[in-house]
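Repro:
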Amino acid sequence: MTTFDPTMRVLIANRGEIAIRVARTCRRLGLPTVALYTDLDADAPHVRACDEAAHVPSYLDVEAVVARARAHGCWAVHPGYGFLSERAPFARALADAGITLVGPSAEVMDAMGRKDAAREVAVAAGVPVVPSYVLDGPDATDPARFAYPVLVKAAAGGGGKGMRVVRSVEEYDEALAAARREARSSFGDDTMLVEKYVESGRHIEVQVMGDAHGTVLHFFERDCSTQRRHQKVLEEAPAPTISDEQRAAITSAAVALAQQCGYTGAGTVEFLLDAATGEFYFLEMNTRLQVEHPVTEEVVRVDGWGDDGRVDLVELQLLVAAGEPLPFDQDAVSLEGHAVEARVYAEDSFSGFLPQAGRTSIVRWGDGDRVRVDHALGPDQEVSTSYDPMLGKVISWAPTREEAIDDLADALGRTAILGITTNTGFLRALVASPEFREATIDTAWLDRHEVPAPDGRLARVIGAWTQVLLDTSGAAGPWQADGWRMGADPAPDTVVLGDDVVVVDRHRGRVRLDGRSHEVRMVSAADHTVHLLVDGVAEHAVLNVQRDAVDVVHRGQRWVWERPDPFGDHAAAGGDGTLLAPMPGTVLAVNVSAGQPVAEGETLGVMEAMKMELALKAPFAGTVTAVGAAPGDLVRLGAVLFTVEASDD
């Protein structure tokens, strides 16, 4: 086996949590690392996690990335996922420079990185594929003859980008145009595929690893069925609903496909399992490490490998990149326990999943003995709309699936990110839902159902109680390691949280909200965290009470209430016909001009943030009286984009 040495420097061509995760393995193996950073990321956590750093104008600038690798004398480049990880021109540029890519060859990327070419490889390997239609050319199928619903998807990419479900011929042209635009923006290629859409399916994917000596191993499967608009939300391993026979067939198909294309390195072969028929179809192959690879690392065991048999997929990637054969065979690989992963995003899940941006204040990750957290987010850190909104991943492992779910729900409940809104509360509610616990969620479930939003009553009780104690405490503040320090019995206080008036009687231990009284007993408070008994139930929250606002995270969900300033000015809210930017981002299109009549629901413009498009539509029929932005403009949250005056009728 290769003994890595300090001359084998690795450039990590990525950012965020995956760059930190790769650096962690390199450090354990004695490999020095070089981080890349842009102007926005000059002081990012992944830069501090590496031994050296190099500036690039963009993470997508192939010429600049290769030049930095050469300048720093790098033996290899690890691309992580996203960015250049599946770009064949990048692989060729590294090969021409004599630098090893920790991944497959450019030829394999050409064959498997595109969904259309990968289908042909799958057919040659005897792997079943989803029935499809011919989109272009003389043999193209008339869209009127499609058996709807169909799935329109980008041939050149993944991650749910450039993908639309189309349910009728009337929707087809608009959906195709939108998918093409998104594919061109995300991948620089708008070639599309049209396939049969399986209404109720489970997304099963197999982790494979191949070496340059002809060996391909699988590390069993993951279930990634909990998705929203084809973006994975929760992942788990092993898949909870498949039989041993299905597992054997799917993993064998994945190995056959990888062998067919001469695959080397880590890859993921994705399948769709039709819940109605039990048949499975090849979807695509990701020629890189996946976001959800930690659940595989948590459940796979290899006889005689390391101290506890656990695998480090990045370590195996580096061994393969160094030309070594895989150091064990398939018979040594087994499963132990169950793992579940939740992706934490900067988004408001209960307000249309809109991307969020801003600066964090307090950040607490809910790690533990059986919980792993891969993240790149800390306190007082700027979160920009320029990159993917994923902030980190929380992964639980336990001997049983039920225990793993409980551990993950607990960890998400202890995760608190203040300053920006995240999906953590949504994830906690989803993980704890009976549908996820019973493994009945299919790939379209989140597109058909809503996860109930918490009502925030307990958060208001906790927030009001804490605000009163903070407002009436001494100059030293109440955040003492040994609990609260209080003086004489105070009179009841009135707190305004948004539209709610809350009465706090500290002496009697009561909080009154909306005519209902709650008994509150303080347990402890330290470092912005309070532990209370509310109506006899143990509750905890992380709070940041400022002069102008109260920021609370309770059970993973963030709540922010402005504190009224009796001497301050209050701007008037926009009228019913005023369309404000619901998120900070870029205006992609403006479809109307001032004076133009519009119908109710007509798209006035399109904006984008964090790779998500949002159409801005007329709230009613009328006339556009003002247009506040142009294509390409960067706009702030709440910026006035359009004003529509209602027609007389």
